[in-house]
Structure formats: structure tokens, C-alpha cells
Design goal:
Belongs to the ABC-2 integral membrane protein family. It comes from Bacillus paralicheniformis. This is ABC transporter permease. It is found in: Cell membrane. The chain is mainly alpha-helical. The chain folds into 2 domains: about 1-40 and about 175-375, no CATH class; about 50-165, abc type-2 transporter like domain (abc type-2 transporter like fold, 3-Layer(aba) Sandwich), CATH 3.40.1710. The protein contains 15 helices and 4 strands. It has a 4-stranded mixed sheet, with helices on both faces. Strand 1, helix 3 (about 60-70) and strand 2 form a beta-alpha-beta unit. The radius of gyration is 30 Å and the shape is elongated. The mean pLDDT is about 80.
């Protein structure tokens, strides 16, 4: 036990002599928080800019335009067709609504048509606008159907509808999607930091073998098994500190609402820490030098980090890449945290937890197998 404590202390001293390691172990996990705040903070609520191209000129088209002007956080401007195309392409407008000739008549007849909504920002914008516009138009179309072509009757019903106290009330609700995205990006950077921290710490096994420090230590009462286990203990300790430091900054300094209990999130990340150390040891036992160990880390860590959705939503990736992600521990960490954000209980996610433990077990079994193939734990390659 005394030898183990000395090895742990020595490993920490050697590691933190290099200032770059302080950045790797402390600053890199926090970088994820700043990136999340910058990317998501720039997406705060702004007014929706809508251009109206009115080729119809009818009363219903004008009334629809007036209705949209009354919606909070929506700025309406009349534009020509050429201006609409130019401004939507440059980003000056979020979307353009076009009332084609015959729009007013089609609505009055009960069969709305001759309306188009265009946006380069996709369904997120067009869906929002459609929900308001189509609801308003459908109400008028229902009046047209009830009038059954009787102009006088339609005018009377439409006048009553317009004069009634109808409107849109808006309420501010918590943007849980934004919180989830910020949590995913923060955790994604943390997982990357955990992997590279584990890789840097376990690489000491190869470096000290290269500079003969390892063999000199074996001339003392220290055993090779103690030497390896002390490195694992240091790696787990440093990663645990990374986890708790990051979570404390998230919860109590930046006050980001993750929707997950502090201790539940810490537990899931600590389980992944076992996989991180196991995977890092694999890059050591299959390398015969520190350079080859570094190459293995880059070949394994970065591709798996990107494929698992640590940097961007996995939904935007091709289906084959999403299937590959199912075989990566980082993906299961993110999936577990996402389900916790949805309100599921940690005890109900036993399958996810078992899979994370299984990844760690497989990685350590590979390391143990490699050691046994070499007949002695003193051989790392």
C-alpha cells in the first residue's frame, strides 16, 4: 500500500510539472461550456422577419397581412418578388409569404389556395408561420363554406368575425431544446477531455519504459502490477476531478439548467471514465513507443468522438454513421443523459448502464489479455 501511494504521488508530480497538462486536464473540459454558451447564446429569441409578396390585392390578402402584423415578435414588410428572393438569400428576411392572384377568392369559396411560404431556414421557420397563417385562413374558409356562395351572407359573417375580439396570446415557456443542446455540447467536450486525459496519463507507462525509469523502479520492492494499477488509480482520480469541476461550473457558476440531477450526471460520467481509461490502456499495450501510442490515440479517439455526436447532433449524420455510433460508449453516455433530461429515472435506464459497464469490461479484458499474451505485465507491447 505504501508503494502504491508513493507511485500515485510520483505520477501526479511528473504529470503536473508540464503546464500544458494543466490546460488539458482543467481548461479543456471548461472549453465545452464556453462553446455551448457562445453557440446557443447566439440563438436567443429575435423577431421573425417576414416579407409579403401580394399579387392578389384582395381584401382577404390585406387582412391576412394585417393579422400577421399583430403577432408579437413578427416583423412584416411588403416586398416585390425580386426583393423577396434577394433578401431571403442574404438573410435579411427569415421567410417570404406570397399571395398569388386568386388567393382571396379561393379562401372566400372555402378552398384556400394560391399561397406559398418560402424560407432557406427550413421547417423550423415555415412551420411556425404556417401554424398562424393557416389557422387564420381556415377560419375564413369555414365562413365561406357556410355562406355557400352567398356574397351578402359572407360579408355579414366576415364582418362579424373581423369585429369580434379575436387575437393571439403569447406566453414564454422554458426552451428545453436549448438546454438539451447546451448540455450535449458541454458533455461532448468533457468526454473528449476525459479520453485525451486518460491517454496522456497512461502514456507515461510507455515513456517511462523508454527512458528506463520503469526498469529502475522494478529493482525496488515495487511490482509491475502495482505500477500499472497506480497509473489507473491516478487516471481515474484526475478524470473524476474533471467531472466534478465541470459539473460544479455548469450548475453553480454558469447556472446552466441541464434538467438532470448533479449526482446522476456524475454517476453516468464516472462509469464512462472506466471506459476512457480502458481504451487509453489499449493504445498503450498495443504500442511499442510513445509516438505510436499517440498515433493510436488520434486514430481511435477523434473519430469515435465525432461519430458519437459529441460535437453535433447525431440526427444530422447519415444512417450508417448513426448505426456505427451504437457501438461507441460516448453515444450511450449522451443517450443516457438525454433520457434523463426527458424525465426518465436512472434506475429505469439499467440497460444503458449495463452497456456502459460492458464497454469498460471489454476494454479492460483486452488489456489483460494482451498482458497475458506477453507472459508478463512488465511488457507493454
Amino acid at each position: 500500500m505504501k508503494e502504491m501511494l508513493w507511485l500515485v504521488k510520483n505520477t501526479l508530480n511528473v504529470t503536473f510539472k508540464k503546464k500544458i497538462n494543466i490546460f488539458l486536464f482543467v481548461c479543456l473540459p471548461l472549453l465545452g461550456i464556453f462553446v455551448s454558451l457562445l453557440t446557443e447564446g447566439s440563438m436567443d429569441k429575435t423577431d421573425l422577419r417576414v416579407g409579403i409578396i401580394n399579387h392578389d390585392g384582395g381584401r382577404i390578402a390585406e387582412d391576412t397581412k394585417d393579422f400577421l402584423k399583430g403577432i408579437e415578435n413578427v416583423n412584416i414588410s411588403a416586398v416585390s418578388e425580386a426583393e423577396g428572393k434577394s433578401q431571403i438569400a442574404s438573410g435579411e428576411l427569415d421567410c417570404v409569404i406570397t399571395f398569388e392572384q386568386g388567393f382571396s377568392q379561393s379562401v372566400q369559396s372555402g378552398e384556400p389556395a394560391h399561397i406559398a411560404i418560402a424560407s432557406v431556414k427550413g421547417a423550423e421557420i415555415t412551420g411556425f408561420v404556417k401554424s398562424y397563417v393557416y389557422h387564420y385562413i381556415d377560419n375564413i374558409a369555414a365562413i365561406g363554406k357556410s355562406a355557400q356562395g352567398n356574397e351578402k351572407r359572407f360579408e355579414e359573417m366576415y364582418k362579424n368575425y373581423r369585429s369580434s375580439e379575436t387575437g393571439v396570446k403569447t406566453y414564454t415557456v422554458e426552451d428545453t431544446a436549448k438546454n438539451r443542446n447546451m448540455t450535449e455540447r458541454t458533455v461532448g467536450f468533457l468526454l473528449m477531455a476525459m479520453l485525451f486525459s486518460a491517454g496522456s496519463l497512461t502514456e507515461l507507462l510507455v515513456k517511462e519504459k523508454e527512458n528506463r525509469t520503469y526498469f529502475r523502479l522494478l529493482t525496488t520492492p515495487i511490482t509491475a502490477r502495482q505500477y500499472v494499477m497506480s497509473n489507473v488509480a491516478v487516471s481515474m482520480s484526475v478524470i473524476a476531478c474533471q467531472i466534478f469541476l465541470t459539473l460544479i461550473m455548469v450548475k453553480y457558476v454558469f447556472r446552466m439548467e441541464t434538467g438532470i440531477s448533479f449526482w446522476e450526471m456524475a454517476a453516468v460520467l464516472l462509469i464512462f471514465a472506466l471506459s476512457a481509461v480502458g481504451l487509453a490502456l489499449i493504445t498503450v499495450v498495443f504500442a511499442n513507443s510513445s509516438k505510436s501510442s499517440g498515433v493510436l490515440r488520434n486514430l481511435i479517439f477523434m473519430p469515435t468522438i465525432m461519430l458519437s455526436g459529441c460535437f453535433w447532433p447525431i440526427e444530422i449524420m447519415p444512417s450508417f454513421a448513426q448505426r456505427i455510433a451504437d457501438f461507441l460508449p460516448q453515444r450511450w453516455v449522451l443517450d443516457t443523459l438525454a433520457k434523463l433530461q426527458e424525465g426518465q429515472q436512472l434506475q429505469g435506464l439499467y440497460l444503458n448502464i449495463m452497456i456502459l459497464f460492458a464497454f469498460a469490461a471489454v476494454f479492460f479484458l483486452i488489456v489483460i489479455y494482451k498482458f497475458k499474451r506477453n507472459n508478463d505485465v512488465r511488457n507493454f507491447a
